Amino acid sequence: MAYLHQIDSERCKGCGLCVAVCPKNVLELTKELNAKGYFPAYQARPEDCIYCAICCVMCPDVAISIVEIAEDKAAS
Ligand code: SF4
Ligand code: SF4
Asked: Is the pTM of this model over 0.90?
């Protein structure tokens, strides 16, 4: 199985906690506002993600999730 890292940009409040805590410096805040008027986080360097889930634990709004996906879907 492979993993997929997802950020719900409409749930995110742009606090930047996940950006600060990521040990691999994967995350950044976008420059585009979401519907609530925040700059949500996104994976700027997804290839560096080690799926440690520290960002998921840190997020106060539970906006980040890591899900298992089948390998064939990961490749496409
Ligand atoms: S899962 Fe770990 S490496 Fe990946 S973005 Fe979150 S904190 Fe960074
Ligand atoms: S910790 Fe959560 S709410 Fe804060 S910027 Fe990251 S995803 Fe958004």
From this structure: yes
| Per-domain boundaries in the chain | 2-75
CB atoms within 10 A of CB 14: 19
Topology of the domain covering 2-75: Alpha-Beta Plaits (3.30.70)
Verify whether ligand 2 is closer than 6 Å to residue 59 (CB atom): yes
- The rounded Å distance from CA 3 to ligand 1 centre is 12
Ligand 2 atom at minimum distance from 62 CA: 2
The arithmetic mean of pLDDT across residues 57-67, rounded, is: 98
